[in-house]
Amino acid sequence: MNTPVKDRVIPGTIERVCMRVDHELVSDGYDTWREEKRRVAHPTRAQLVTSLIAGRKKMHAPVLDLDVPHTLVASTSEGHSHLYLDVPMTWWRYKRLLRALAKAGIIEKGYVKASLRRKHTDVRVPWLKKVKA
Q1: For 41, 78, 101, 112, which has the most beta carbons within 10 A of its beta carbon?
Q2: Could you tell me the pTM of the whole model?
Q3: Three-class HEC string of the chain
């Protein structure tokens, strides 16, 4: 069943640029081929959501296509989550991932520092509420 256009909402709190993909026949006089053209479109007419932030040149908000099994669990802190990626990796490779995420501002540097010290990451179990001191 198709969702009515008025109910289509792009997730997130940042307005991202949406695009539509059109195909055009292009010819150089000798040969003809089909070329893909991407154009900015209103979200109700779009086929794609980009990482580009609307109205802010050269600024991006990550939009990722995760090709691995994963689970996103809401944290007790409003607007925060815990992401479980079912991708086995060595500690060496995991440290590189953690540092890159911290450098990009995705996770807190203090969380990475504490995790490196204890040689693993951890999050509260989903059913345990955070107690404020």
Answers
A1: 112
A2: 0.74
A3: CCCCHHHCCCCCCCCEEEEEEEEEEEECCCCEEEEEEEEECCCCCCCEEEEEECCCCCCECCCCCCCCCEEEEECCCCCCEEEEECCCCCHHHHHHHHHHHHHCCCCCHHHHHHHHHHCCCCCCCCCCCCCCC
